[in-house]
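User: Run a structure prediction on this.
Assistant: Running it now.
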Amino acid sequence: MQPGTTKSIRVHSCPFVVELRGYCLVADNFTLGSWSFACETQPTTMKAAFIRQIGPPEVIQFSELPQPTARANQVLVRITAVAMNPIDTYIRGGMIKPNLPMPFIVGCDLAGVVEDVGAEVKRFQRGDRVWGTNQGLQGRQGTFAEFAAVDEQWLYSTPKQVSDEDAVAISLVGITACLGLKRARLQRDEILFVNGGTGGVGSCVVQMAKNFGAKVITTAGTDEKVSECRALGADVALNYKTEDVDAKIKEFAPNGVNVWWESLREPNFERTIALLAMRGRMIVMAGRDAKPTFPVGPFYVKDCSLHGFAMFNAPADEQRACADEINRWFTEGKLRARIDRVMPLSETAEAHRLQEESTVGKKSTLAGKIVLKP
């Protein structure tokens, strides 16, 4: 190498410029032998959708934030797709008040490629495709960014034949559905009812219940969505706007429904309990502020049980077991994602508005998930 030669190297992701000046090497304020180093460092940033305070969708900013680095037990993921969930709007709007780090990157789900791994990571290496969920909760930063540092325990391999968009669209809702069906101890040939068979959770419940060997009754708000429910495998799909749903349920299940998956934010227990079978089980995973009337007598004389759960309370090993099931069903062609639309990450505020309108506003305008891409 001749005097004046310049060479670039990368150490710990920090760019250095090495310059040979003949007799003395300087690195910042240090000398080493006869070489001189000049270090030019620049802060590494990424695009992200984040908030600095709770509020309406308009509080979401899309700008530069420092890029995270992976700690010993973490994986740095270069994100290729994220997905909206109703809980994202509850956190942003203050309906749920977790301990948020500020600025707080919104979002729970991600899919992408491993960029770097910490020293203690065993299951992944650079270049692996992964998907995951359960971020943006319990003090963890969210996923709506170009990169995320995620604890290894919350990540799963993406099957080769599955797109990142499909993987991320199924992540939170898929694990939620799987956990709930296991809690309900759904058995082969039992009858399950779920509202909204084309929604995020509902479409997963329909497909997974069929994979468990159960019979499925579901509802939708248009004839087109009813047809889609049937395509997903539902044995009975009803238009709740034009059909007598309760009469149809009784016709198909004269002895009652074995598992009722309640997805409405304001459940009607008087109606539901009357439609349950002996030893029927009800899953409740919505309606945070609801205070419905509960008919105790009809409930206990049929030996019924009520199971409330939130997926983010489940330990990592339970969630991983469901992720393994999801990947198997994906691979076997027994599970497919329902995506309503794909948007750029820069339109996160609009995605929040659409999700809020569909769920909190009860307009049911979405037929599947909103996926966003950096």
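The two ends are 42 Å apart (CA to CA).
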